[in-house]
Amino acid sequence: MPLRSRTAVTHQDYSAKQLKLLGVYGVSLLIIFVVPLLLWQAAPTKALAQVDWLDIATEGALFVLGMCWLMVILSARPRGRVTNLLVLGLACYCLGCFLDLLDEMFVVKAVPIYNWFEKMPTPIGLVILTCGLWLWRDEQEVVNRQLRTREQFYRQHHLTDGLTLLNDAKTFELHLTRQLASHRPLGLLMLDIDHFHQVNQRQGMEEGDRLLSEVAQWLSSQLRSQDLVCRYAGDSFVILLNGAIAPLVSTMAEQLRQGIRTLGCHASVAWVLPPPREIATEYPLKTEALGLLLSLNEKMSQQKTMRGRGCLQEGSQQERL
Ligand SMILES: Nc1nc2c(ncn2[C@@H]2O[C@H](COP(=O)(O)OP(=O)(O)OP(=O)(O)O)[C@@H](O)[C@H]2O)c(=O)[nH]1
C-alpha cells in the first residue's frame, strides 16, 4: 500500500514529543533532588549569616528562566537537529545555574571536584546553544524564503480554491495562455496523488482534505516565485514552470515525485513542453493551452496505468507475505 497511515505518524510524533518532555522533566527532577542530597552528605551548609540572599535570588531566577526557555523550546519546536542542540545547550546552561545556586548554600570548597565541575556546564551549554541558534538562523532563512514565495504567490494570483487556497483550472488556463503569448520557454507539470481515495475511505474525508492542503502548501514552497501551481481537479495539481527548459522540468518532476513522500504519500508526475514556436503559432493560443493540458492529462493517464500494473504486483506480493 503506497499510502502509510498519516494519523499513526502524527500520533507517533506526538508521543515522541511527550516522551522527550517526560525525559527532560525526569532528569531535571533527579538533578534537582539528588545533587543537593549528595552535597548535603559531603559538604557543610553555610550559616544563615554567610548566605548572600541577593545571589540566591538572581541565580535562582536564572535557573528558573532557563528551565522555562527549555520547556518553551521543547513544546514549540519540531523534532530535529536544531531542536536537539537548543535543548542540550539550555539543559547544560540550566545545570550550570543550578550548581551555582547550590554554591550559595553549601561550603563547596570542601568538595574539590564540585568546584571544578560546577564551572563546566554553563560555558559548554552556551557554546552548544550558540551552534543551535546559528543553525536555527539558517533554517529560518529557508522558511522565510518559502514564506516570501508564498506571499508573492498570494499577491500575484487570485485564490479561488477554498480548500487549498490555490488557483483553479480556469485561472490556470488563462495564465498559461498569457505565458504562451509571451513566447518565453515554459514547462507544464502535473502531480496526482496515488490512490488518494483510500485516504478518504480509511482515514475519513477530513484527513483527505488535510492531505490536499498540505500537498498544496508543500508544492507552493517548492516552487520558484515565477512559477504557478493550481489545483486542477480533486487530487491533481498542475504547475507552470516559467522560463524552464526540458532538463529543469524533468529534474523538478523527479524531485517532486520523490519529495512528496515526506508528506506520507506517493504521487505520479507527468510533464510536457509546448511544441516548437513555428508549429505553435498555427493555432490560437487558447487552443494551444488546452491542447497542452490535454496531452499532460494523457501522459498522466499513461503513468497511472503503468503504475497501476506495478502496484498490483506489489499488492499481490504483500498478500503472499
Ligand atoms: N477529501 C477530499 N477528497 C476529494 C476531494 N476532491 C476529490 N476527492 C476525492 O479524490 C478521489 C479521487 O479519486 P481518483 O481520481 O480515483 O484518484 P486516486 O484514488 O488517487 O486513484 P489514482 O489517481 O488512480 O491513483 C475521489 O475519491 C474523490 O472523492 C476533496 O476536496 N476532498
UniProtKB/TrEMBL annotation:
Residues 184-317 form the GGDEF domain. The keyword Phosphoprotein does not apply. Keywords: Membrane, Transmembrane, Transmembrane helix. PANTHER family: DIGUANYLATE CYCLASE DGCM-RELATED, REGULATORY COMPONENTS OF SENSORY TRANSDUCTION SYSTEM. The chain crosses the membrane at residues 21-41, 53-73, 85-108, 120-136. SMART domains: GGDEF (SM00267). Gene3D superfamilies: 3.30.70.270. It comes from the Bacteria. Its EC number is 2.7.7.65. This is diguanylate cyclase. One of its GO terms (molecular function) is diguanylate cyclase activity. One of its GO terms (cellular component) is plasma membrane. The lineage of its organism: Bacteria, Pseudomonadati, Pseudomonadota, Gammaproteobacteria, Alteromonadales. It catalyses: 2 GTP = 3',3'-c-di-GMP + 2 diphosphate. PROSITE patterns: GGDEF. GO terms for biological process: cell adhesion involved in single-species biofilm formation; negative regulation of bacterial-type flagellum-dependent cell motility. Pfam families: GGDEF.
